[in-house]
């Protein structure tokens, strides 16, 4: 778990690098940073000019649209050791 906090500390630019901060302070900085990013996305001029995404198609009650085939969870979970800490892994901690 400490590795996760260390990684968050490196990723969030608002955390002072040379100051000792508690885990709670790290989480507060992370939350503030996420809110700042969300606000930046919501108010970015290029995104404001785009038309809204098309509405999802309506499906009568009891019907579902055809979905692409999914990989079974058993196939995804066959090698748990190989799934952790791969280069470029986008999940911070497992």
From TrEMBL:
Residues 48-94 are annotated as: Disordered. Keywords: Nucleus, Repressor, Transcription, Transcription regulation. Residues 1-37 form the BHLH domain. GO terms for cellular component: cytoplasm; nucleus. It is found in: Nucleus. Its main location: nucleus. Pfam families: HLH (PF00010). GO terms for biological process: cell differentiation; circadian regulation of gene expression; negative regulation of transcription by RNA polymerase II. The keyword Transcription regulation applies. GO terms for molecular function: protein dimerization activity. Heterodimer with other HLH proteins. This is DNA-binding protein inhibitor ID-4. It comes from Leptonychotes weddellii (Weddell seal). The lineage of its organism: Eukaryota, Metazoa, Chordata, Craniata, Vertebrata. The gene is ID4.
